[in-house]
């Protein structure tokens, strides 16, 4: 059984088709990477999955239910968590408080249980030492970790990661990969949009290529990257 199914999902902004009959499935616990040139429609695909935008056609199924017309909050409650390309913490709150907000409102966790859950997630995401720090003062790596932690605080079955490795040094990127790998190993499914290809392929089992809103290819990462069509799209781009 698949955890997430997109069935011929299409979306246009005026004359611009940003999702063109996209169909794919993600199995429970699977990690899928998404690559594609700027403007290919990758973030739009996430917005369709989270319910932030509605498709013009097609269906989205999650965990056995049709969520195509469901609002974002009910999809979070169903188990779809998300990190954003640009970290968006409440900068005046502490790291712990930021997580508690996500656990309360996104995950429906309350009281001592929510606090214990948040402390556990902070440890697992490498933020245990800065729980009481104001999130506005965090380094870029810590802010990326907090994005990951906030997505996890909603107890997701599926986490959507949007360019979480961008802007990090090699060492920082390696540290973040370790954390993402451990979350994946615990059984959480992941869909990860990323331009840092080596980070992506060190975690995902399958890779999808989007171009002009169309799914060009999906499959085992090495096979996808070896395809002449994919090579042509990335010609001259250091991936
Ligand atoms: N709300 C919107 N209204 C109109 N056009 C939009 C809207 N959101 C996105 N677009 C356009 O849709 C196209 C796809 O955008 P999207 O952000 O999904 O691409 P992307 O693959 O994530 O790109 P990047 O790698 O640069 O983040 C772009 O041409 C963008 O300008």
From TrEMBL:
Record keyword Metal-binding present: no
Domain ABC transporter: 4-237
InterPro entries reported for this sequence: AAA+_ATPase, ABC_AA/LPS_Transport, ABC_transporter-like_ATP-bd, P-loop_NTPase
Keywords: ATP-binding, Nucleotide-binding, Transport
One CC-aspect GO term: plasma membrane
Molecular function GO terms recorded: ATP binding; ATP hydrolysis activity; L-isoleucine transmembrane transporter activity; L-phenylalanine transmembrane transporter activity; L-valine transmembrane transporter activity
Nucleotide-binding listed as a keyword: yes
GO BP of this protein: D-alanine transmembrane transport; L-alanine transport; L-isoleucine import across plasma membrane; L-valine import across plasma membrane
Designated name of the protein: ABC transporter ATP-binding protein
Species this chain originates from: Celeribacter ethanolicus
């Amino acid at each position: 059984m698949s955890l997430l199914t997109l069935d011929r999902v299409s979306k246009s902004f005026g004359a611009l088709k940003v999702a063109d009959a996209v169909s794919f499935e993600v199995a429970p616990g699977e990690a899928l990477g998404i690559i594609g040139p700027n403007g290919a429609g990758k973030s739009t695909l996430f917005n369709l999955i989270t319910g932030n935008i509605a498709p013009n056609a097609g269906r989205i199924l999650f965990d056995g239910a049709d969520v195509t017309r469901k609002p974002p909050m009910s999809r979070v409650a169903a188990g779809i968590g998300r990190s954003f390309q640009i970290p968006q913490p409440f900068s005046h709150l502490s790291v712990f408080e930021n997580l508690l907000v996500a656990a309360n409102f996104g995950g429906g966790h309350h009281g001592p249980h929510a606090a214990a859950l948040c402390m556990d997630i902070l440890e697992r995401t490498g933020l245990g030492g800065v729980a009481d720090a104001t999130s506005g003062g965090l380094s870029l790596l810590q802010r990326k970790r907090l994005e990951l932690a906030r997505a996890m605080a909603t107890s997701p079955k599926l986490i959507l990661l949007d360019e979480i490795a961008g802007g990090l040094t090699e060492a920082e990127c390696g540290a973040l990969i370790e954390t993402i790998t451990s979350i994946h190993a615990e059984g959480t499914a992941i869909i990860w949009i990323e331009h840092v290809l080596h980070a992506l392929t060190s975690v995902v089992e399958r890779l999808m290529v989007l171009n002009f809103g169309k799914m060009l290819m999906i499959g085992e990462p090495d096979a996808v990257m070896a395809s002449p069509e994919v090579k042509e799209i990335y010609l001259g781009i250091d991936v």
